[in-house]
Amino acid sequence: MPTPPSAEQRQAQARQRAELILHVRSGQLSARQAAARMHVSRKTYYKWERRALAAMIHALSPKNGGRPPLPSDPEKETLQREKAQLQQKLAALEQTLEIRRLLAEPDKKKE
Length: 111
Known about the structure:
111 residues, mainly alpha, 2 domains, 4 helices
């Protein structure tokens, strides 16, 4: 049983395929010649060519700039919402206490 190719061998093979696809696309080779060099059928060659061109388009598509968004943590988001709600309630209660304090003070102007 043959040993599977190493990562370097697979990468070299992928490079060779990419070079042959570029040669076909530039008119230097025919698809039949490239398929023969790859030891595959023309149908397989065209399948690889479509995959290679699709991958190139994907790789060259505009991407959003900046850092990728951080993964969301639903528990953290819930706690942050609850914290914001509690801060709003606290601010309202502090205002209520201040109004009560002001109303409880005797009017110093009348004295």
